[in-house]
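Prompt: I keep going back and forth on a fold encoding question. Comparing notes only helps if you start from a blank page. Show me how you would write down a chain together with its backbone fold. Please set it down just below, with no commentary around it:
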Amino acid sequence: MTLHQPVGFSVTVEAVDPRTLWLALQGVLDFESGDEFLDVVSRALEAHAVEHGPVLQELHMNCAGLRLLDSSGLAALLTLRRRTHPAGVTLCLRHRPVQLTRMLALTGTTEYLTARADGTVEAVGPAGELAGEAESTSS
């Protein structure tokens, strides 16, 4: 008999500059971790604003470490987008695993989550890589 083992979730800051914040997501973003995710990201955004002022334009999230995302995890991403977009901050989901790409496509939320806050369009691939980024990582 296999007992359910919590798989965990973490968010770490990868890089910061005044206009951009990079976070890495690891583990399972689901019903159990959604609130934690929002709390950690909110604290990271607040710390960024304290250090740099209200100049943040892009919140990049490296999703390569996501092992699972359920509907509650998607709801957490949508909540984050509703908080950041009105403040002029674009949510950028980078290195999306296949299951995240499928979830976004199935729910029709890809364009909503990745729309730029300033109204411009950024060239990204289906996994969230920047134009030219896929070629440099696959070589």
About this structure: The beta strands are 9-17, 20-29, 58-69, 90-94. The first strand starts at residue 9 and ends at 17. DSSP finds five helices and four strands in the chain.
